[in-house]
Design brief:
alpha+beta; Ribosomal Protein L22, Chain A; four-stranded mixed β-sheet; three-stranded antiparallel β-sheet; 18% strand; globular
C-alpha cells in the first residue's frame, strides 16, 4: 500500500483484489442545516434506521455505511440500486451480507434464497467510528466456494493451501484514539502512569496477559519520535510515553476487532484472550485536516504506511492463513484490515512464495490477491448517479 491512498472518479473493483473504500462524514456532520444526501434512495427500512439516531454525526455515519454497502453491491454484482436488499447472517452473529436470488428478481436478497446463476457472491465488512466509515469487500465469482452462513467459521482457520479453497472472510475496523464522544469523560484519556495502567486493566477480558503487559511497559521506539528524540511542544518524556502506549492499546484494539469481525464473532467470543498479536508496530500519526472539508480530494500526508509484519496466534499456535495490517489516517484514526480464504490471507502465511516469484525450498507458491489502497468515496461524485439510476455500471 502506498503512503497516500488514492481518490479517483472510477472506484476500482476487481475479482482478484480486495476493494477498500471510505467516507469521511465530519464535514457533513458539522452542518446541522444540511439534508442527508441520497437518503431517499435507500429502502424504507434503511431510511428508518438512519433516522433513528438522535445525534447528527451518528445519522451521517449510518447513512454512509448504507451508501457504501449499496454502492459495493451495485458495482460488484451489477444490481440496480432500487433492487438492493441487505440481509443478515443467522443469529447470533447477524452480520450484514448480500445473498442474491437465483431466480430472476434482480437484487432481491434474503438468507433463505437460492444461490445465484450469473450474479457473483460478495464478501464485505463495514466499520465506523468518529464520523469515519470504511468498507472492505471482494467478489466471489461463480464456481468459487461461497459462504455457508449457517455454519460459523472457525476462528483458527487452517493452512494457506487449505484457505485457498475456502470462501474469503474479511474484517475491517476503525479506531479513533481521540474520539470526541470520549472527551467529555475525564477518565477516558489517562494522563498518569497509574491512570494508564488502570485504564488498560479494564480490558483484561479482551487481551492476553502478555498483550496487557506490553501495553503497560513498552518503550517508545527511537524511530517513532517525530524529530529524532525531540519531543513535541512542552511534552515531557513520561507524557510522551503514556501517549505512545495509549496509541499502542488502540492499535491492539483495532487488530483484535478486525480479526473477530473477519470470523463473524463479537467481543464476547470465548477465545478472545487466546487471540494474540506479536511484532506489533504502532502507526505514526499523520497530518490532520482542520477543519475537515467536504469534497476534499487532497490525500497527501493524511495516510501513513501500513504496518504489515504482525504475527497472529490463537491458543498458543501461529495462525498462518490470515493477512492483517493496520494503517494511520491523520493524527487520530487507525484502520485495521484482516483477511483469509480465497487467496486474500496468504501474504501472512508460512507457505508464501519468495519475493522474486520463485518457489522456496520446502514452500509452495500461492496466488495472492491484491489489497487495494483505501479509496475516498465522494457521495456526490461517486454515488449520486448510481443511486439515481443514471450511471453506466449496468451497461
Amino acid at each position: 500500500m502506498s503512503s497516500a491512498p488514492s481518490s479517483v472518479p472510477l472506484l476500482n473493483i476487481s475479482s482478484s483484489s480486495l476493494s477498500r473504500w471510505y467516507i469521511d462524514t465530519r464535514a457533513l456532520a458539522s452542518n446541522p442545516s444540511s439534508e442527508l444526501p441520497l437518503l431517499s434512495t435507500l429502502r424504507p427500512e434503511d431510511q428508518t434506521k438512519v433516522k433513528s439516531f438522535y445525534h447528527l454525526p451518528d445519522r451521517c455515519m449510518s447513512l454512509a455505511s448504507s451508501l457504501l454497502k449499496y454502492l459495493f453491491i451495485h458495482r460488484a454484482c451489477h444490481v440496480p440500486w432500487d433492487k438492493i436488499v441487505i440481509s443478515r447472517t443467522p443469529a447470533p452473529h447477524k452480520r450484514p451480507c448480500y445473498i442474491p436470488l437465483s431466480s430472476g428478481g434482480g437484487g432481491e436478497s434474503n438468507t433463505n434464497g437460492g444461490r445465484p446463476t450469473t450474479t457473483s457472491h460478495i464478501e464485505f465488512n463495514v466499520s465506523h467510528q468518529a464520523s469515519f466509515v470504511a468498507l472492505a469487500g471482494c467478489i466471489i465469482l461463480p464456481g468459487q466456494v461461497v459462504p455457508n452462513y449457517d455454519k460459523p467459521p472457525s476462528p483458527s482457520g487452517g493452512t494457506t493451501a487449505e484457505s485457498l479453497n475456502t470462501p474469503p472472510q474479511i474484517g475491517i475496523d476503525i479506531t479513533c484514539t481521540d474520539d470526541p464522544a470520549r472527551r467529555k469523560r475525564p477518565d477516558a484519556v489517562p494522563s498518569t502512569e497509574e491512570a494508564l495502567r488502570a485504564f488498560i486493566d479494564i480490558f483484561a477480558e479482551v487481551f492476553s496477559a502478555r498483550e496487557l503487559e506490553i501495553m503497560k511497559t513498552a518503550s517508545v521506539p527511537a524511530d517513532y519520535y517525530p524529530n529524532g528524540r525531540q519531543l513535541p511542544g512542552s511534552t515531557s518524556q513520561q507524557q510522551y510515553s503514556i501517549i505512545y502506549r495509549l496509541r499502542l492499546f488502540y492499535t491492539y484494539w483495532a487488530l483484535k476487532e478486525a480479526y473477530i469481525k473477519m470470523t463473524g464473532e463479537a467481543l464476547l467470543a470465548s477465545w478472545l484472550r487466546e487471540l494474540e498479536f506479536t511484532n506489533v508496530s504502532v502507526p505514526k500519526p499523520q497530518e490532520q485536516q482542520e477543519p475537515p472539508v467536504l469534497n476534499d480530494d487532497d490525500e497527501e500526508g493524511k495516510w501513513g504506511p501500513p504496518e504489515t509484519g504482525i504475527h497472529v496466534w490463537l491458543h498458543g499456535k501461529r495462525v498462518t492463513d490470515v493477512r492483517i495490517e493496520v494503517v494511520a489516517f491523520e493524527t487520530d484514526y487507525l484502520v485495521a484490515t484482516a483477511g483469509r480464504g480465497g487467496g486474500f490471507g496468504a501474504n501472512n502465511a508460512e507457505t508464501n512464495a519468495a519475493d522474486d516469484g520463485q518457489q522456496e525450498e520446502g514452500k509452495s507458491v500461492v496466488e495472492v490477491a491484491e489489497w487495494q489502497d483505501l479509496q475516498r468515496v465522494d457521495i456526490e461524485r461517486d454515488i449520486a448517479l448510481c443511486a439515481s439510476g443514471e450511471c453506466a455500471c449496468l451497461d
